[in-house]
């Protein structure tokens, strides 16, 4: 063993030196060179840092550097995240997305252009004018539809979601709610009045009958009682009988 190589290393190193740090790593750890000023120090990590990808060999596992425009990568030719100012597309970092694609500034990726989609039109509404469906001849009717897919930045914009057109209806008079209510109130009052009138008439009739009965009774009391005619047989005196 070289005099500068130590066997009692720390931090996952299998072999190391005081000047260069780790020279080899323990199993399953990745060896990577980190630059400190003008010199590079070897370190052993469980996974490769940002900007590197891991490669495994029978004798050593190493971290290799990604391309300059790539922040993280799976291999040198397949990037998984791009650095600022680049858009990811099929493992590559591009400054401008291909035709038919658009740049997504949130994910920093090239994505498909999404166009707006709307549902089918609803049936036409009843013909109205100023919120009413009667009392006029010409009015308007409308129909609506909903947006089921909103567009992306470069997608086709959404169409109108409502339409209106002129319409003609058969003229008819409106039955005002207030007038109908007033008629119902008048009918109710009339019914109550008639009922009260019948009740008063019945009361008057009973009062008149009672008054007539009382008058008859008073007349009967004021008339003198008739004396009964004497019985001829009983009125005969003894003298007449003897004669």
TrEMBL record:
Entry's localization field: Secreted
Basic and acidic residues: compositionally biased ranges: 175-219
Domain Spondin-like TSP1: start-end pairs: 116-170
Chain spans, region Disordered: 169-243
Limits of the R-spondin Fu-CRD domain: 11-110
Gene Ontology BP term (one): Wnt signaling pathway
GO molecular function list: heparin binding; signaling receptor binding
Keywords, comma-separated and alphabetical: Disulfide bond, Glycoprotein, Heparin-binding, Repeat, Secreted, Sensory transduction, Signal, Wnt signaling pathway
Superkingdom in the source lineage: Eukaryota
Pfam families linked to this entry: Furin-like_2, TSP1_spondin
CDD domains found in the cross-reference section: FU (cd00064)
Gene Ontology CC annotations of this record: extracellular region
InterPro entries: Furin_repeat, Growth_fac_rcpt_cys_sf, R-spondin, Rspo_Fu-CRD_dom, TSP1_rpt, TSP1_rpt_sf, TSP1_spondin_dom
Function: Activator of the canonical Wnt signaling pathway by acting as a ligand for LGR4-6 receptors, which acts as a key regulator of angiogenesis. Upon binding to LGR4-6 (LGR4, LGR5 or LGR6), LGR4-6 associate with phosphorylated LRP6 and frizzled receptors that are activated by extracellular Wnt receptors, triggering the canonical Wnt signaling pathway to increase expression of target genes. Also regulates the canonical Wnt/beta-catenin-dependent pathway and non-canonical Wnt signaling by acting as an inhibitor of ZNRF3, an important regulator of the Wnt signaling pathway.
Subunit structure: Interacts with the extracellular domain of FZD8 and LRP6. It however does not form a ternary complex with FZD8 and LRP6. Interacts with WNT1. Binds heparin. Interacts with LGR4, LGR5 and LGR6.
Family per similarity comment: Belongs to the R-spondin family.
UniProt-recorded name of the protein: R-spondin-3
Species per Swiss-Prot/TrEMBL record: Chloroceryle aenea
